[in-house]
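Sanity check record (used in CI):
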Amino acid sequence: MAEIVIVDNPEDGGELVARHIAAQIRARPEFTLGVATGSTPLPVYAALRRECDAGLDVSSVNAFALDEYVGLPDDHPESYRSVIRREVTEPLGLDPTRVHVPDGDEATIETAGERYEALLAANGGVDLQLLGIGTDGHVGFNEPGSSLASATRIKTLTAQTRADNARFFDSPEQVPTHCITQGIGTILRADHLVLLAFGDGKADAVAGAVEGPVTASVPGSCIQLHRHVTVVVDEPAASRLERSDYYRWVYENKPHWQGL
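Expected output for Glucosamine-6-phosphate deaminase:
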């Protein structure tokens, strides 16, 4: 069963996760972090920046992004390559040569999935993968109906996901229709999954991922198949969990030697 941590607010969740990541980096400088985009992981990155400002050495840290839009130039402000550079690489002072994003170039897209899988394998995989979850239960850009064994590949974005992401563009029509994303099978190869969700808009998706059946209809439910999962949610996002009191009791009474 996943470890469920219910926090008072996103900032507390970000601090908790960042402290854990910082401890892992101190123990293993060539730590590999799987990074996600969107607003959900921003409190983690903000707290990690404070760790770096306090002396955390991230010069040997590797980072792999979950996904990228197809067809946006690398320098487009909403390409995930730009977003990761702006929100993660530069604020944390990561070595840009160690930060990897799937290739969304239409000219080479046919082999982009295979190349990213090979790069992940050559690195030895991801130590900790940060995940958000969409209102429809998607993780990465694995939309409902995605194979639970899928590898990095091209996907068509649903109307709901494009609508959710339209706030980052000048108009909904500018949101790309396709993406390249790590598959669910790829995500499940990470050593530790940390899924974050904040706000009541994510409550149904969180309940489905944590307490519902494992189903391709709710891609986030794949976390139930993983050996080491931590779900960090605020009270609104936890509001549909039927066993929330039990999750609180488990977390509050876990042995001191257990990590996040």
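The mean pLDDT is 96. If this sentence no longer matches the regenerated tokens, the check is flagged for review.
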